[in-house]
Design goal:
With about 140 residues, this protein is α+β, with helices and mostly antiparallel strands. The protein is built from 3 helices and 5 strands, in the order αααβββββ. Strands 1-2-3-4-5 form a 5-stranded antiparallel sheet. The model has no long low-confidence stretch (mean pLDDT about 85). The chain starts with a helix and ends with a strand.
């Protein structure tokens, strides 16, 4: 009788081990399938922008190109508003549509050079400060 109980315990232990091994194998297969799916979606998003190019930012922690473009556009709009206000102070009624906006670099800093018909303003992109008006440094005014 004791011999039968030992055999039953061994058989149950073998069945448990098989279940654990099968569970581990299924888990590994699921991880591989999920990894392949995510990798494929990532590559498709990079090449065809299925998700708007946003998957790269999720997986790499980087901003997507669209997010950077939106931020640049917002900065540019704020700089244009500042320039229009300055033009108004100078007595020129400049309209947004009439302005010419150039992005320039001076001594490693980026600026928007915004010109209207009569005046020009240079706005530092990093902090949106007006640094030059009509080519003259603001500190000297």
């Amino acid at each position: 009788m004791g011999d039968k109980l030992d055999r039953i315990k061994k058989i149950k232990a073998i069945k448990v081990q098989k279940k654990v091994k099968i569970g581990i194998i299924i888990g590994i297969i699921l991880v591989v399938i999920i990894g392949i799916t995510i990798g494929t979606l990532y590559e498709l998003d990079k090449s065809h922008q299925i998700f708007g190019g946003n998957l790269e930012g999720i997986f790499t922690g980087k901003e997507s190109a669209q997010d950077k473009k939106k931020q640049e556009d917002k900065q540019k709009e704020k700089a244009i508003e500042k320039a229009i206000n300055k033009f108004n102070e100078l007595g020129e009624k400049a309209q947004k549509e009439e302005l010419e906006v150039l992005k320039i670099q001076r001594k490693g800093e980026l600026y928007y050079y915004i010109s209207a018909k009569e005046n020009s303003v240079e706005v530092k992109i990093s902090n949106l400060e007006i640094t030059r008006v009509n080519g003259v440094l603001v500190n000297n005014l």
